[in-house]
C-alpha cells in the first residue's frame, strides 16, 4: 500500500511511500490476532512490574502474644493474640508476597503481534509519514508546532525515527502526551497505547526491510 509523504508543516509533498503489505496490511481475520496481541501486551506489562509488594503476616506484626481471653466460657469465638487476622490492626491472611511477573514469549509471536498492531493503526488512518527532519537544538515549541500541523496535539502521539536523535528526544520528552522511539525498539503495546503515529521516511524504510 502507498501513503502520502508530508513535510513537518503537515503539507503534502506530492510524493508517495510504499508500506510493506506483510507488515501494514495484514488480514486481521486470519488466525487469532486479538489473542496474539493480548499475550504480547500481557508479557510487556508484566515485565515492567517490580513485584515488590508485601503485606505483614502474623509473625511479623508488632504486638503481644498473650492470649486475649480464656479458651472456653467467654460466650464468643476463641481468640489468640492481638495479632489475629480477625482483629483490627492484625495480620493479613494470604497477602501478597514478592514475586517475579516476568514471562517469556516466542520471538516470532512477538514479531507477529507488532505487525498486527501496525496493521490496525494503518487501517485506522492513524499513521502519518513525514520527511526526515531534525532540530538544530532542543525545542519543545517546534515539536508542538509539528503536532498541531497534523492535528494530533491533543492526542497521545508516538514519533518513530530510524535512529537516535538527542535534540528530538529532548524536545519531545517534556510533552505529557508525546513519546519518541526508534523503529528498532517498537513493540505492540507502545503502538496500541498511542492514538497517532508519526513516522519519518527513514523509519518506514527500516521497518519495511527488517520487520
Tell me what you see in this structure.
Helix content is 33%, strand content 15%. The chain has helices at 21-24, 33-48, 107-123, 140-149, 166-172, 188-192, 201-210; strands at residues 2-6, 12-18, 127-130, 157-161, 178-182, 196-200. The protein has a 6-stranded mixed sheet with strand order 2-1-3-6-4-5. The chain is built from 7 helices and 6 strands; from the N terminus they run ββαααβαβαβαβα. The mean pLDDT is 91. It has 2 domains: 2-50 and 104-210, Ribosomal Protein L4, Chain: A (3-Layer(aba) Sandwich); 55-95, no CATH class. With 211 residues, it is α/β, with parallel strands linked by helices.
Task: Examine the coordinates and then state which fold CATH places here, giving the name of the CATH topology of the largest domain.
Answer: Ribosomal Protein L4, Chain: A
Report the portion of residues in β strands: 5-15%
From the helix content, strand content and strand pairing, which structural class follows? alpha/beta
Could you give the distance between the termini? Answer: 16 Å
Number of extended strands: 6
Mean pLDDT across all amino acids: 91
Unreliable sequence segments: none
**The level-1 CATH class of the largest domain:** Alpha Beta
What is the name of the CATH superfamily of the largest domain?
Ribosomal protein L4/L1
The number of distinct helices, counting runs of at least 4 residues, comes to 7
The domain count comes to 2
Named at the architecture level, the CATH assignment of the largest domain is 3-Layer(aba) Sandwich
Q: Spatial order of the strands in the main sheet?
A: 2-1-3-6-4-5
Helix percent reads: 25-40%
Structural shape: elongated
User: Could you describe the largest sheet, including whether it forms a barrel?
Assistant: 6 strands, mixed
What's the gyration radius in Å? Answer: 26 Å
Order of helices and strands: EEHHHEHEHEHEH
Protein name: 50S ribosomal protein L4
Organism: Lepagella muris
Keywords: Ribonucleoprotein, Ribosomal protein
Amino acid at each position: 500500500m502507498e501513503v502520502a509523504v508530508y513535510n513537518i508543516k503537515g503539507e503534502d509533498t506530492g510524493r508517495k511511500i510504499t508500506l510493506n503489505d506483510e507488515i501494514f496490511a495484514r488480514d486481521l481475520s486470519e488466525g487469532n490476532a486479538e489473542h496474539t496481541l493480548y499475550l504480547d501486551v500481557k508479557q510487556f506489562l508484566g515485565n515492567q512490574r517490580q513485584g515488590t509488594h508485601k503485606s505483614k503476616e502474623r509473625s511479623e506484626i508488632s504486638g503481644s502474644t498473650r492470649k486475649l481471653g480464656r479458651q472456653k466460657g467467654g460466650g464468643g469465638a476463641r481468640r489468640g493474640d492481638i495479632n489475629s487476622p480477625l482483629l483490627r490492626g492484625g495480620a493479613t491472611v494470604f497477602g501478597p508476597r514478592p514475586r517475579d511477573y516476568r514471562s517469556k514469549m516466542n520471538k516470532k509471536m512477538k514479531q507477529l503481534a507488532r505487525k498486527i498492531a501496525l496493521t490496525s493503526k494503518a487501517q485506522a488512518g492513524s499513521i502519518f509519514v513525514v520527511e526526515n527532519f531534525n532540530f538544530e537544538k532542543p525545542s519543545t515549541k517546534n515539536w508542538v508546532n509539528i503536532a498541531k500541523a497534523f492535528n494530533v496535539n491533543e492526542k497521545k502521539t508516538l514519533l518513530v525515527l530510524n535512529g537516535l536523535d538527542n535534540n528530538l528526544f529532548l524536545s519531545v520528552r517534556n510533552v505529557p502526551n508525546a513519546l519518541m522511539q526508534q523503529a528498532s525498539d517498537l513493540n505492540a503495546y507502545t503502538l496500541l497505547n498511542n492514538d497517532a503515529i508519526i513516522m519519518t521516511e527513514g523509519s518506514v524504510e527500516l521497518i519495511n526491510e527488517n520487520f
